[in-house]
Amino acid sequence: EHFSPWTRSGQLLLGHTPHFKTRFPNMVADLARNIEAHGRSKAYHRRGIWAIKKKNGGKLPVHPKAAKEAATEAKPKFYPAEDVSKPLKRSFARRQTKLRASITPGTVLILLAGRFAGKRVVCLGQLPSGLLLVTGPFKLSGVPVRRVNASYVIATSTKVDVSKVDISKFDDSYFKGEKKQRTKRSEGDFFEDKLEKNTIPAERIAAQKAVDAAILSGLSADLKSYLSTRFTLRNGDRPHLMKW
Predict the structure, then answer these.
(1) Of 34, 55, 186, 204, which is most buried by a Cβ count within 10 Å?
(2) Cis bond upstream, residue 137 (ω within 30)
């Protein structure tokens, strides 16, 4: 009588290792490396390829290949002698900066960096690039309409009415300067070079005056003096305990 290491419940008896065919009845042991016990015809029927052909009219199903995009630029035949720098691919979506809850149109801000560090300005809004649009007004603190990064300002609790200010004409392209074409100069032109003064267009001067007039009309004498003074810290001042 043949001894089976398997019990009726399908469990393997302790101390018994079943034969390969008993453990894997559907697999075929290799006679040697890459040499199976069954031939090509036997493996053909065992894998069920005949059933796939029968289902598809006697032929194996063919899946259409994805069309390759035509190369727009022909690759060079030779590589350059020196390494050519290529811009890195950036796979990120540019999103507008989310402002702090304390920064709203009309909030008085304190600039922390740049040419006008320490000046108090009025926030007019946020541009599509995420930068803040602020102004002094220019008549009080000398700060014109300019763009400021929200990371370099302190928001105070003082508010100013800016409902009359029209900022529709101010966008990121408004602050881009004109590109000057550089001409090749000789040595004589280099020593005789004279500095050209930058002239402000009349349109910008008119726009600045319109913004200043809309803001100054609703300011009291105390607010005007507050905006015109520069923020400073003295000995003994504790910024972390101040109420802005």
Answers:
(1) 204
(2) yes
